[in-house]
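Q:
Got a chain?
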Amino acid sequence: MEDKTMNPVPCGSRPLAPEVLKDGRRKILDIRNLDITFRTTAGPVHAIRGINIDLYQGQTVAIVGESGSGKSVTMRAAMGILAKNAVVNSGEILYNYRDNKGGIDYNPDEDNGAEWKSVDILKQDKKWIRSHINGRRMAMVFQDPMTSLDPTMNIGKQIMEGMIWHYHIAKEDAWNRSVQLLREVGITNPEKLMKEYPHQLSGGMRQRVVIAIALSSNPDLLICDEPTTALDVNIQAKILELIRKIQKERGISVIYITHDLGVVAKVADFVNVMYAGKIVETGTIDEIFYDPKHPYTWGLLSAMPDLDTSDPRLYTIPGSPPNLLHEKKGDAFAPRNKYALYIDDKLEPPMFRVSDTHYAATWLLDPRAPKVDMPEELKARIARMKADAEKLTGESIDAELEAKKKKAAACLKEGTDSESGEKQEDQEGR
């Protein structure tokens, strides 16, 4: 008798996103099938396994997951700053940009005559990336400001350095711009702080300085790697609000790397959930929070602190993340997943389509799988989150979620149709 569990039904893998959305926003970062291994003395570590991420102008995308899931490695690859023992097995990282020929004040959105360029970061040498990408077009806010700030250099010089390196502006102009940047990030006495050193500042002020440094060369993309981990709750909220304010004023795109879904809820448009070097679920913020499909996402949401629960204990996902030195056959999350099926130990699940913007890599979405619902405690929590959101907005979250799904699907379809038409016209012209 044929074992049907070993013959998965075809599920459309996630299609390529259009280059231009219906509202005119272009894709600026396109990570496709990225696969990375690290050479170590203990053996090869397969850290990234087939990552796909799309980012458009003005968008905020979050990458969430436990420590060691590959979030930071993915973004370091995008910036071209991987460690020397990293080996890129396959994939491409396409960055699309307009050349800011107008210098530090150049605004690509206002220059309709400038042509868009596309470059594969993985094919460029470090010198080109350092002069054309790092700081100038992509900038990163690292997790711990004390490790990214130079203790021997005053704050002013550290902010000015990027401007002078990339745009060759005068020191006096760089100084004035640095003072203005510090005001922009909420420093009340910027002239005084310019002459101080990192050890003289509080944690919140150091994080503001790091954000100012990241913004100093007017990048199009800001990557925030756990920007609020070491801060107390009040300062954390202020830093998140600051980044949102800067994004709105400058029209930049933002990628958040975090393990805290509470942070994600406040800032993200789209969420990618990572586990063991692979994206296991992706969708809009509402789809991930109100309609999660992967058991790992269920676990992350259940682990969020909740004041309204009757259970005084904090939930933890059982077990530990896998040792990537020893790759597991099938689904890497299966040993920790109480809903795991027989096939999870045999075959890695593909991405199953939930909606045009929502995909999850779990065999529970296979039509032949037994029906498994999320835990009742999580259902109750999501119901409370919906009720709280409805109080603030005065609208039905379910209706809003459905409307957003339709809007996102229409936006993607319009972009795809437009792109197909352009390709057809191009072929006809040839």
